[in-house]
């Protein structure tokens, strides 16, 4: 079990909905994340996919400690982060760092690149002694493919792709074991996206990092991830290796999601068995009873409303799938 | 829908046999404090009725500015159309006075935008905004116009259209809002629809819904569609012909099958290769090196030459390459298109 770097057990985050200004009364909760069990091993990339509002960003914020879980446990390298003291929790955070989505708003425009990348050392002064910090920052700049001489420049002097590299350098500053990438390339142009993905893969090889890679772009996740979890309305509906999820998806939502992705090959036009879902994602403040996907599912029957399907290996699914009727369906004939 | 089809007083010189949209050698520049940004430098393309023309390119390549110039909604100043023609059935829109252009806008050429929330007016109900079109352009009474608005919402498959017509834009989800935009664009039965990144802000399952709806409406009305996007998956799915833009120019023009099978410009080729593909899993993606140029400072010669692996002296020294005829039905602006296309 020593190579398990991160584990969550039944992690839950509910945001209370309150009424009234003086006497706040809670009348409900947005169930953003509702019981997530994940494991991440050393050197592995776990992809998390799902549409907006499925709770993937809230999950990310909990993992890095920006949000306190409502309940459940988070283990980083075997330590239960919700049980340890403040000091130890602070030290623990070092090991898990975040790369944010928007390289334009996640860097302070009034700080130089050197200050931005060096800021983690102010919080964790024992990582690098003061005298060596500038050299360390330059080393980090070089590592992410930027010119170390640009240490005194400001974020606006860089392009989107370069800014994302600065964000990655900042995440690497404290020598973390785990990097959590929350939509790291979705704000970038296609030609720049590939550069950043290549950089992330190179860093993983060189530094032995583990990644949690959150994205809505399924082809990017497929490229980079070893295992993939599919989220819908605060729950994981299917989890498995990249091959299992993309080749033999068994949850109807995964199938619909995969079939909706346009394939960049005009020859396959009209040959894809596209499932067009009806309706919108229900509100997480009032999720449907039983299976949360049943309101949009073409397989839904009475049992789906009565009994919540657990995420487990099923008769017709070799990997965990949270559907009573989990069954392989060949949805994507793309990319031979 | 029959009574809406009463066309307005005809534009002078409209030739019903001419193409619904032809852009010829369009130039647009932005006069800014930091110099002149050459956003569009000689863009040409044709659009047939019922055809889908994709304009593919990354941010800052001038694709949205081209659309704004066609619609006549360019922010001016700083934006100025400095040359070229935009022909609607043979009539050059750029020569028309604003009062005449208004008759074209929404009536014959309509547009949908990327961000439906900021394109809709937040202080009026969607029903009011839809009805406004009929009141202004068709002189309908409030009541009739409202009834048409309900029909339109129904057409774009918004459930419970009769109730939702009184809702404000913020009460709709992203996908539903985009449907309202489509309803608004199609209200006056245009011949050409320009869609500027219509699904970029949406999730994939919603994107699939919207693209299916657009395709269906296009087929029913035999409407020409200009689809502006950077998503090569969407293009492969719906486009008939593609114009690839880089630094304000069309650098390749071909049918969708030709482009994906054998790109003839290094930039197109680079774009296609940088998409993650299954057979390349675990390998490095072949990224295009470097960055797109600033439009205030476009490189000498071929604008792509600093990033191009085929670049030679001639690419830097000669003026930008013209669109070479690669085959009778396709062109590419690269001196070395034979090599680029050949080594596939």
TrEMBL record, chain A:
PROSITE patterns: ABC_TRANSPORTER_1, ABC_TRANSPORTER_2. Keywords: ATP-binding, Nucleotide-binding, Transport. SUPFAM superfamilies: P-loop containing nucleoside triphosphate hydrolases. This is ABC transporter ATP-binding protein. It comes from Micromonospora qiuiae. It comes from the Bacteria. Residues 6-258 form the ABC transporter domain. Transmembrane segments: none annotated. NCBIfam families: oligo_HPY, PRK11308.1. Belongs to the ABC transporter superfamily. Signal peptide: none annotated. GO terms for molecular function: ATP binding. PANTHER family: D,D-DIPEPTIDE TRANSPORT ATP-BINDING PROTEIN DDPF-RELATED, TRANSPORT ATP-BINDING PROTEIN.
